[in-house]
Structure formats: structure tokens, C-alpha cells
Amino acid sequence: MKLFAPFTGLIFLISVFADQINCQTMDDDIQNYNLYNAQYIQFSSAEVDDTFKLFISVPDKYSNSSKAYPVLYVLDGDIAFGMATSIARYLQVGGNIPELIIVGIGYGSIDKSAGNKRKRDYGSLQTGGIENFMNFLKSELIPFIDSNYRTINGDRIIYGYSIGGLFALYTLFTQPDTFNSYIIGSPHLDWNDFSIFTYEESSSEKIGDAKIKLFISVGSEESEEKYFNPIDSLVTKIQERNYSRLTLGPKVFDGSSHLTGPAEALTYGLLSVIGRNDK
């Protein structure tokens, strides 16, 4: 108990001192600002029958130019959008990647209800939810972004991690022309009894000679049964297809676990699919 006595006295003195000075309230210091030129939009989808929360960031000089930009679509936008904009800014300052428009697709929270919606949209291969979300992207969201922002036609990247990575793979194997670059971190392949492998088996004609850049990563400390071995098997299958114009960049992050991998996957994924080789 004696160890705590000095701190108790100190807290009392601080309290008395605080009462005696004229402090500025926190409300007086609060100011609204847009980080990374970001906008927040509620977007209603007829395809999914739900409202999504979109986070959209444009380059610094966007409003003062007529330049068009590639678009990075970020799944799990509620938690991943801030990370994505920060990583992209770091890489752009170093001249490692071009400037991007970044679109985070979220649900407005990261609680259990949002988790259930993630499963509905990213992983329900058998109930049709994943197809509805695909239709939302292709027929609603992408046309909206292309109509309201200066985008380079067809120059689109998707970033998905874990179950979001599963959705990105589903897109690649069923409608590969939706994006020309795919950044996929630690995809959750055992979902629906590994049925994503069935989609891969019938994907070669759809992918054909399409020009696609694909990055897939996994952490060395992730579960071998759940992540490492299935991802290794999938990468091998894609490599054996010998696609003429598909560039595959697989990567294992040494010492990385499932929840330490998202930033690594996006950083090295961006360098892999749109990195400037002279940097």
C-alpha cells in the first residue's frame, strides 16, 4: 500500500491545481477536418438490399487538375481504409507507386453485425450473397465511381484480406475483368469446405490471355491447416496454368501472423502490381 501513497498525493495536488486555473474546454479545441481529402458517402445498393458506407480519398492536386487516376478498392473499409490511405501516401512520397483514388467499402462499424455482413458479402458462395455483392460492385459501385471521379478506364485494383481475400479470388475466377490487379492477403480458403478450388478449376477459359497482375501473401506463423498449406496449394495451381499475361507475385512474410499481415500485404501488394521499377 505504501507504494501507492506518493501517487495519491500527486493526483490530489494536480486536481487542486486544475481547479484553480482557467482551463480551455476540449470543445473549444475540436475542429473538423478531412484527412487525405477523404469523403464519406452512404450508398444504397439494390443488388444487396443494404446501405454501404463508402470512404473515398482523392490525390492532393485532384481539384486543380484534369488528370485521371487508377482506383484502389479496399474491402473491410471500416478498418482498412485509414491503413490503405496512409500506406499509399508513404509509397507515393517515395515515388514508388502512382497517385490513386482510394475507395473503402464498409458497413459503418466493426461490431458483430458488420461481421455478419462480411460473411454475407464475402463468403456465402452457396447462398448467393457473394454473387449479389459482385453485382453491386460491377453494376452499381464501379459505375458510380467512374461517373463521378476522374478514373482511368479499366485501371482498377482490389485489396482483400482473409475472407475479403476469398471474395477477391472469387472475382478473379468468375469475372476476372472486373479488376486488372488483385492484392490478396491470407485468403480464408477453407470457407464452404474449400469450394473456392472448384471455381479455380473452371477459371482458365475466363482468365485466358487477360492482362492481370496478381499478388497473394501469407504469414509464416499462420495456421498451416487453415491458411499456409491451402494458399500454397492454390498458388501452385495458378502457376501451373502458365497464363500468358497473368503476372503472379506470391510472398511469405517471415514471422507474420494472421492479424499482423494486413499492412504488409497491402504495402508489398501495391509495389507488386503498380510499383515503379525504377525506384
The number of distinct structural domains comes to: 1
How many helix segments? 10
Give unreliable regions as ranges: 1-26
- Strand segment tally: 8
Helix fraction by DSSP (H/I, runs of at least 4): 40-55%
State the CATH superfamily name.
Alpha/Beta hydrolase fold, catalytic domain
What's the CATH topology name? Rossmann fold
How would you classify the helix and strand content by structural class?
A: alpha/beta
Overall 3D form: globular
Tell me the layout of helices and strands.
Layout lengths: L4 H16 L5 H4 L8 E8 L4 E8 L11 E6 L2 H17 L7 E6 L5 H12 L5 H20 L2 E11 L1 H12 L6 E5 L10 H6 L2 H4 L4 E8 L4 H18 L4 E8 L8 H13 L5
Parallel strand pairs: 3-4, 3-5, 5-6, 6-7, 7-8
Antiparallel strand pairs: 1-2, 2-4
Helix pairs in contact: 3-10, 4-5, 4-6
Architecture overview:
It is a single chain. This protein is of the alpha/beta class and 279 residues long. It has a single domain (33-274), classed as 3-Layer(aba) Sandwich (Rossmann fold), CATH 3.40.50.1820. It contains ten helices and eight strands. Strands 1-2-4-3-5-6-7-8 form an eight-stranded mixed β-sheet, sandwiched between helices. Helix 3 crosses helix 10 and helix 4 (112-123) packs across helix 5. It is globular. The termini are far apart. Residues 1-26 have low confidence and may be disordered.
Summarize the structure.
This protein has helices spanning 5-20, 26-29, 77-93, 112-123, 129-148, 163-174, 196-201, 204-207, 224-241, 262-274, and strands at 38-45, 50-57, 69-74, 101-106, 151-161, 181-185, 212-219, 246-253. The protein has 279 residues and is an alpha/beta fold.
